[in-house]
Design a protein that fits this description.
single chain; about 140 residues; mainly alpha; about 50% helix
C-alpha cells in the first residue's frame, strides 16, 4: 500500500479512466520498471521545459533524476514538517526494529495520510523545487 498526500491523490484521480486498466500506461501497456525509456524521455522533456520557462539550463541532477531521489526528497520534507522518525519509517516503507509495544500500536491509515500532507504545509517555495540527495562522481 502507498499512502498518498492530497497533491499526489489529485494527480492519480486525474488519470483515472484515461486507460481501462492502468493509471500511468506507456503506449497502452503496463510499466514494468521505472528506469525505462519513458522515464528518461520524461526527464528530458521536463528539463527542456524548465529551461524554456526559466531561461537557464537545468542542472545535471535534474536531468538525471531517479525515482528513488523522489523518495529521499519526501523523507527530508517529512522531517522538515516535524513528522516523527517512526512515522517517517512507516510512510516510506522502511523496515525498523520495532518493539512489541510499537507493533501493537500501528498507525491508522487516516493518521498516515494526515502526516503525508504535512509536506504540503512546508515552505511553498520548497514544494516546487527538487532536492537532489546523491550526486554521482564525475
Amino acid at each position: 500500500m502507498v499512502v498518498l498526500n492530497d497533491a499526489a491523490k489529485q494527480i492519480i484521480e486525474a488519470q483515472r479512466g484515461l486507460h481501462p486498466q492502468y493509471v500511468f500506461p506507456c503506449n497502452g501497456k503496463a510499466v514494468g520498471q521505472m528506469l525505462n525509456s519513458a522515464w528518461k524521455n520524461a526527464r528530458k522533456r521536463a528539463a527542456n521545459k524548465y529551461e524554456r520557462i526559466t531561461g537557464s539550463p537545468a542542472n545535471k541532477g535534474f536531468k538525471n533524476l531517479r525515482v528513488h531521489d523522489l523518495k529521499h526528497t519526501f523523507g527530508y520534507r517529512l522531517r522538515a514538517a516535524g513528522v516523527y522518525e517512526e512515522d517517517r519509517k512507516d510512510l516510506m516503507g522502511h523496515k525498523s526494529d520495532k518493539s512489541v509495544t510499537t507493533h501493537y500500536s500501528a498507525p491508522t491509515l487516516e493518521r498516515m495520510i494526515e502526516l503525508a500532507n504535512k509536506v504540503l504545509e512546508t515552505d511553498p517555495q520548497q514544494r516546487n523545487s527538487l532536492t537532489i540527495i546523491r550526486k554521482k562522481a564525475a
